């Protein structure tokens, strides 16, 4: 059954139940016992501040007075209810139990819709905050204590729309159903809120049925959030919407709010970018927004003015539209001012602002002869929308010079659009433009298991014939080997970007099946003469679905350096062929500006005396910069040893170091330590300040001391200090394997210790580690390890260190590893 918070009858359903059965004692004795018990509860509760865990109901209609039951602890003696918004106030009605209380909430008729935080207080302090959801619609509540099983219940009949219904899926597999009247030609919006209101429902679903029980619409998630379903009946009649959790979970915490009505909902905006220093008209896209469309059939008339984008619109697909004015003053982004009292929206909408030309597409532009012009640099705002419901194709023409380094990228998913763009560069006649050739030199196949588009590792046939930095071609997806298998149950690892497998040469990372063929390939420029080896040669074109660098999500990015000067086309499509009002995108064409940004991880460390703690530098590589970066740390206090310089190798994204406190070290109180990153960018040296290590705090000696030393003899296993406080040195030649010592001194830690060696040069590994990795059993204090250097590693110096995993991640002092091709024998000092 449903009850309304506005009605008098709802008070009984929401009022806290009181115990009426009292132990059968003589009247005076019972009264004394009751008073003593209440006094005891009050005195106990007064010693602690209140705790709020729940409220019922969670939603109220503004302008109404509603009783609300609070649940928690220490609620016996409440003194105040605190609202963040002054248009809300409350009176404490009942606080007779330690775990429950009742308040009466009053709200102003002008109170803004949305979530409003409140807390309660007693003389000992204030509780945490809960959210009360306020709306201008009637709020109805599903009474869950219904003796009829849900499967046998008739749908709850809703009163006149619009209305918000609060309910809960209290048992696994529960489903609620609500019947309402739909009018022909009037769009009904069903907005389901679960995650948005703090519910445990993770996979809500709405299913709409007509009067004959046929499914006419359904939704299980809108833009990655809770379901939102809009439906326009062809003829009037009764409809039923079912609410369920696809995971079939249920509890009192699986509550929801379902708002139903012909309500104005904003679900998108167009365009996604506007010029700066002017007032721009931005279209609101959604349901029931106005009676007219704000689109015109004009083409853009200037390079810096946004015009309406489509020449023909299928009104049966078009919901409705309205426009708002957006004033811009600077480059960046600006929020679209949406009247919260007039429109409903799940989130704020923002548009990009640019000083470069911002254009809007003019349809039709699905052929080379009808391609819209776009300037370089500049942006084009488009939308996938086809009057005949076919997949929309948009073509844009731009001019580029030979050798000019350009970047073409889309902004769609990043701006909240459901479009999944794909970019292709074509010649002036509409033919594909090749980028390079990939010649297969080894064949292989995926074994053990399939791989998806994000995972770093794989098992491949013939991996023994592969090496680090080799490119592997998977049916159009090119990955690069980062680490070889480290044992019989270990994967090959590929390079990552943004935590996902990186795809090279602007290919798109995709999933691949078990036993799918793949190849080790070598890239060649167009026109190179290739020697036939019996394996295939693949031509890579300028085409991208999802950004290969994995930074733009489902948006696309292409690096383009034309070989000849002339006009080119860029084709933009939705990779799935989807279209609609909300499928907007912003295409940007600009010059590449290679750059880098280095950030510190591990500032203000706490370092035990006689031990070390690690830190790291991560680099954000911008616009194709892949060069080496040197990080220098200066002004280091004398009683600390810090890894410097650190090298972020070409194509890599991090370097790690350690700060080691000598036994006489004291905490630093100044920020004099200076960090500088330097690299060669486009032939010139670029230096940038990096965040300092900050204050170094010294702690007492750890439970474990760690040493990483050159190998001397099996009898010399005590930890020793390097001469003159300089780092130990190990020299290794490419292709060699040499031993080294890992040693520990126990200062309370008696268990086994596991290790890794960080910041080794790429191509140098800790070899022969076995299934359990590098460890020292609890009965030992040292271990001999082996370092192996690949044959292709160049001469270099690297400061590396050992770090344990079991007693606070203590590190050794830095050790200087030198790779020298000219040294026929490995040596150690």
Strand order of the largest sheet: 1-11-13-20-15-18
- Residue runs with pLDDT of under 50 for 5 or more positions: 3-25, 291-319
Global Rg: 34 Å
What is the number of domains? 5
User: Strand pairing plus helix content: what structural class?
Assistant: mainly beta
Question: Please, what is the average pLDDT?
Answer: 88
Please bin the fraction of helical residues: under 10%
Roughly how many Å apart are the termini? Answer: 84 Å
Report the count of strand segments: 66
Structural description of this entry:
By secondary structure, this protein is mainly β. The protein has 5 domains: 2-135, Immunoglobulin-like, CATH 2.60.40; 145-261, Jelly Rolls; 265-427, no CATH class; 595-699, Immunoglobulins (Immunoglobulin-like, Sandwich), CATH 2.60.40.10; 704-828, Immunoglobulin-like (Sandwich), CATH 2.60.40.10. The protein has 2 helices and 66 strands. It has a 6-stranded mixed β-sheet with strand order 1-11-13-20-15-18, with no helix packed on it. A hairpin with a 2-residue loop joins strand 36 and strand 37.
In short:
With 829 residues, this protein is mainly beta.
Write the topology of this structure.
Layout: E1 2-4, H1 10-14, H2 27-46, E2 51-56, E3 59-61, E4 65-73, E5 80-83, E6 88-94, E7 100-107, E8 114-122, E9 125-126, E10 130-135, E11 139-142, E12 156-157, E13 163-168, E14 175-182, E15 188-193, E16 204-209, E17 215-219, E18 228-231, E19 237-245, E20 255-261, E21 265-270, E22 273-275, E23 278-287, E24 320-328, E25 332-335, E26 344-345, E27 350-354, E28 358-360, E29 372-373, E30 378-383, E31 393-400, E32 406-411, E33 421-427, E34 434-447, E35 457-460, E36 471-474, E37 477-483, E38 492-494, E39 496-497, E40 500-501, E41 517-524, E42 537-541, E43 543-544, E44 557-560, E45 566-574, E46 584-591, E47 595-601, E48 606-608, E49 612-622, E50 629-634, E51 640-642, E52 646-648, E53 654-661, E54 674-681, E55 684-690, E56 697-699, E57 704-710, E58 729-732, E59 737-746, E60 753-758, E61 764-767, E62 774-776, E63 782-789, E64 796-804, E65 815-819, E66 827-828
């Amino acid at each position: 059954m449903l009850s309304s918070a506005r009605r008098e009858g709802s008070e009984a359903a929401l009022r806290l139940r009181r115990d009426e059965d009292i132990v059968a004692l003589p009247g005076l004795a019972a009264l004394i016992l009751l008073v003593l018990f209440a006094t005891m509860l009050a005195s106990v509760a007064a010693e602690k501040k209140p705790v709020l865990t729940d409220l019922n109901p969670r939603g109220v209609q503004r302008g109404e007075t509603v009783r609300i039951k609070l649940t928690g602890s220490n609620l016996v003696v409440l003194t105040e209810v605190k609202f963040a918004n002054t248009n809300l106030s409350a009176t404490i009605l009942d606080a007779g139990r330690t775990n429950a209380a009742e308040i009466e909430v009053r709200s102003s008729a002008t109170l803004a819709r949305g979530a409003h935080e409140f807390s309660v207080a007693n003389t000992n302090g204030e509780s945490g905050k809960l959210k009360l959801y306020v709306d201008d619609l009637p709020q109805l509540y599903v009474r869950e204590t219904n003796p009829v099983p849900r499967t046998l219940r008739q749908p709850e009949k809703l009163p006149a729309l619009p209305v918000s219904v609060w309910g809960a899926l209290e048992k696994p597999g529960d489903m609620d159903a609500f019947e309402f009247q739909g009018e022909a030609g009037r769009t009904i919006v069903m907005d389901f809120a679960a995650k948005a209101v703090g519910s445990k429902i993770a996979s809500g679903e709405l299913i709409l049925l007509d009067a004959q029980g046929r499914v006419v619409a359904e939704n299980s998630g809108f833009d990655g959030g809770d379901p939102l379903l809009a439906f326009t009946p062809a003829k009037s009649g009764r409809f039923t919407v079912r609410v369920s959790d696809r995971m079939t979970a249920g509890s009192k915490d699986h509550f929801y709010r379902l708002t139903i009505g012909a309500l104005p909902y904003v679900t998108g905006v167009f365009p996604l970018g506007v010029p700066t220093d002017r007032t721009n008209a931005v279209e609101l896209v959604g349901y029931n927004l106005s009676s007219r469309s704000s689109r015109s059939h004009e083409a853009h008339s200037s390079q810096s003015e946004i015009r309406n984008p489509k020449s023909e619109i299928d009104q049966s697909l078009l919901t409705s539209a309205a426009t708002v004015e957006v004033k811009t003053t600077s480059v960046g982004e600006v929020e679209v001012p949406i009247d919260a009292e007039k429109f409903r929206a799940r989130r704020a909408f923002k548009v990009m602002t640019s000083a470069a030309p911002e254009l809007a597409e003019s349809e039709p532009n699905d052929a080379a002869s009808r391609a819209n012009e776009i300037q370089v640099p500049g942006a084009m705002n488009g939308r996938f929308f086809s009057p005949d419901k076919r997949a929309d194709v948009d073509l844009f023409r731009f001019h580029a010079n030979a050798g000019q380094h350009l970047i073409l990228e889309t902004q769609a998913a990043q701006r909240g659009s459901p479009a999944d763009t794909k970019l292709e560069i074509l010649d002036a006649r509409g033919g594909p433009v090749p980028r390079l050739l990939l010649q297969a030199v080894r064949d292989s196949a995926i074994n053990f298991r399939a791989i998806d588009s994000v995972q770093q590792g794989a098992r491949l046939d013939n991996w023994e014939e592969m090496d680090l930095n080799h490119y592997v071609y998977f049916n159009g997806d090119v990955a690069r080997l980062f680490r070889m298998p480290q044992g019989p149950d270990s994967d090959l690892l590929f390079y990552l970007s943004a935590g996902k497998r990186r795809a090279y040469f602007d290919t798109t990372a995709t999933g691949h099946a078990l036993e799918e063929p793949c190849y080790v390939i070598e890239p060649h420029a167009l026109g190179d003469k290739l020697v036939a080896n019996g394996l295939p040669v693949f031509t890579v074109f300028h085409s991208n679905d999802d950004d290969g660098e994995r930074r733009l999500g489902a948006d696309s990015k292409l690096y383009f350096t034309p070989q000849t000067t002339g006009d080119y086309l860029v084709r933009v499509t939705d990779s799935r062929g989807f279209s609609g009002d909300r499928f907007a995108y912003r295409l940007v064409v600009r010059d590449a500006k290679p750059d880098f940004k280095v950030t510190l991880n591990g500032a203000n460390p706490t370092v035990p005396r006689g031990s070390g703690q690690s830190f790291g530098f991560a680099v954000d590589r911008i616009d194709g910069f892949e060069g080496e970066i040197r990080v220098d740390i200066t002004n280091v206090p004398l009683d600390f040893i810090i890894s410097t310089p650190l090298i972020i190798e070409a194509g890599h994204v991090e370097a790690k170091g350690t700060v080691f406190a000598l036994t006489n070290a004291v905490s630093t109180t100044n920020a004099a330590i200076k960090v500088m990153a330097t690299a060669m960018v486009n032939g010139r040296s670029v230096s940038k300040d990096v965040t300092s290590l900050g204050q170094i705090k010294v702690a007492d000696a750890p439970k474990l001391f760690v040493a990483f030393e050159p190998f001397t003899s099996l009898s010399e296993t005590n930890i020793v200090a390097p001469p003159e406080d300089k780092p130990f040195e190990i020299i290794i030649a490419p292709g060699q394997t040499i031993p080294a010592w890992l040693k520990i001194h126990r200062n309370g830690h008696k268990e086994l210790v596991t290790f890794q060696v960080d910041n080794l040069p790429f191509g140098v590994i800790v070899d022969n580690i076995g299934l359990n990795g590098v460890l020292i059993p609890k009965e030992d204090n040292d271990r001999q390890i082996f370092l192996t250097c690949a044959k292709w590693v160049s001469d270099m110096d690297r400061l590396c260190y050992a770090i344990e995993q079991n007693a606070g991640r203590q590190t050794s002092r830095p050790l200087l590893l030198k790779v020298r091709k000219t040294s026929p024998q490995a040596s150690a000092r």
